[in-house]
Design goal:
The protein is 20% helix and 32% strand. It has 293 residues and is α+β, with helices and mostly antiparallel strands. It has one domain. The strands form 5 sheets. It has a 6-stranded antiparallel beta sheet with strand order 4-13-14-15-16-17, with no helix packed on it. A 5-stranded mixed beta sheet has the order 5-19-7-6-18. The N terminus is likely disordered.
Length: 293
């Protein structure tokens, strides 16, 4: 005999109707969500494409002065490191007579086997005579607020160094407040540092060797190998100093000073409207040849 207090074995028609409507609503919501996601995805993609196109259209070339690769960039020999003899040699450049010159790296303080590049001394145009312009110059007015810069506040004023320019030329021999310093861009760590470039009280200039040191075969991912113009010693930047690892000045360390501030053009010129801006190098070889020391 059945118990009248127990519920029915199957849902009532009314309950089935409610469940059906709930299922229909849930399906409709899910379908609507899919449609909205698909439409939204298309709208977002279109917006991103529009934004990239707009930014590309407004980014006019800056036109830096005197920073194109030198002809010697194409002199790279098929083999630039020679360890077959009693001494280890690293190709340096073609000499004035057209004959190859070498660095003797037998006693180098780094693993020279990890050096890559080989484009030749000063083939990458480090800056020896920096050119600066004011924010109201035609060239500087092309910079957009979002452009990345490094800024320095010196005793005699402020200066701004475009990140893309530093990446290209690697080293700037500069001076401010009677203190000669070198700004070096390290692409391995994506950072610019400035170093005191005085040795025993006398300023020296640094040039690019066309080499980089790093674990990658891509020279753009290694620390740039520099040389000083007087002794042809080889140097590497690190966090605390510019360190000589080969040559007559081996073991010398030039300390970092005035750490460049990573910023954007809009932020920097907003703080320092009278700042000077690096726009290139004076490469008039008749008046200002590459320094000899």
């Amino acid at each position: 005999m059945s118990n009248a207090s127990e519920g029915p074995a199957n849902p009532t028609p009314r309950r089935r109707s409610i469940l059906g409507r709930v299922a229909t609503y849930a399906f409709g919501l899910a379908l609507g969500g899919v449609v909205l996601w698909w439409v939204g995805r298309g709208v977002w993609t279109t917006y991103q494409e529009y934004r990239e196109a707009s930014q590309g259209a407004e980014d006019a070339p800056i036109g830096y002065v005197g920073v194109s690769l030198r002809k010697t960039y194409n002199n790279k020999p098929p083999r630039f490191f020679d360890s077959s003899g009693a001494r280890k040699r690293l190709w340096a450049a073609k000499g004035p007579d057209g004959q190859p010159e070498f660095y003797d790296v037998s006693d180098a303080a780094v693993a020279v086997e990890k050096i890559s590049g080989g484009f030749g001394r000063d083939s990458i145009p480090g800056i020896d005579y920096p050119l600066f312009e004011r924010p109201d110059s035609p060239r500087v007015r092309k910079f957009r607020d979002r452009y990345e810069f490094y800024g320095l506040a010196l005793a005699d004023g402020t200066r701004a160094y475009p990140r893309d320019l530093l990446r290209k030329i690697q080293v700037v021999n500069d001076e401010g407040g009677r203190v000669p310093f070198a700004i070096v861009f390290d692409p391995q760590h994506e950072v610019a540092r400035s170093y005191d470039r005085r040795i025993e009280g006398r300023p020296v200039t640094f040039g690019t060797t066309g080499y980089a040191l790093g674990d990658s075969d891509d020279p753009n991912l290694g620390r740039p190998v520099l040389y000083d113009r007087k002794t042809k010693s080889l140097w590497l930047p690190d966090e605390k100093a510019l360190v000589c690892f080969n040559g007559p000045l081996k073991g010398t360390a030039l300390p970092t000073i005035l750490q460049p501030e990573p910023t954007t053009w809009g932020a920097w010129v907003g703080r320092y409207p009278q700042t000077l801006v690096l726009v290139g190098s004076d490469r008039d070889n008749d008046r200002k040849p590459i320094p000899s020391e």
